[in-house]
Hints:
Structural class: mainly alpha
Amino acid sequence: xxxxxxxxxxxxxxxxxxxxxxxxxxxxxxxxxxxxxxxxxxxxxxxxxxxxxxxxxxxxxxxxxxxxxxxxxxxxxxxxxxxxxxxxxxxxxxxxxxxxxxxxxxxxxx
Length: 110
């Protein structure tokens, strides 16, 4: 029987977050160059990991949904999910809510 200790699970979890961050970084550099391009690699990584940890509060069923959450968090701010309409959607149908939220909520840039 294989037994995994808590420390090992934490290390595996941390590693999976870092792999995800490495996977999503090129996408973010392409979709949000005005935000991501100005940051150092360490700042980018920190912001992505914080968003990934916040995304874990919701039962997303796909990597793409988590990626969308991270993208919105970086674009609109880390508290974007406190929007009342989105919060309700994230609670009941997270994947649908995260993909339908965005353009209408974005502030206009000049």
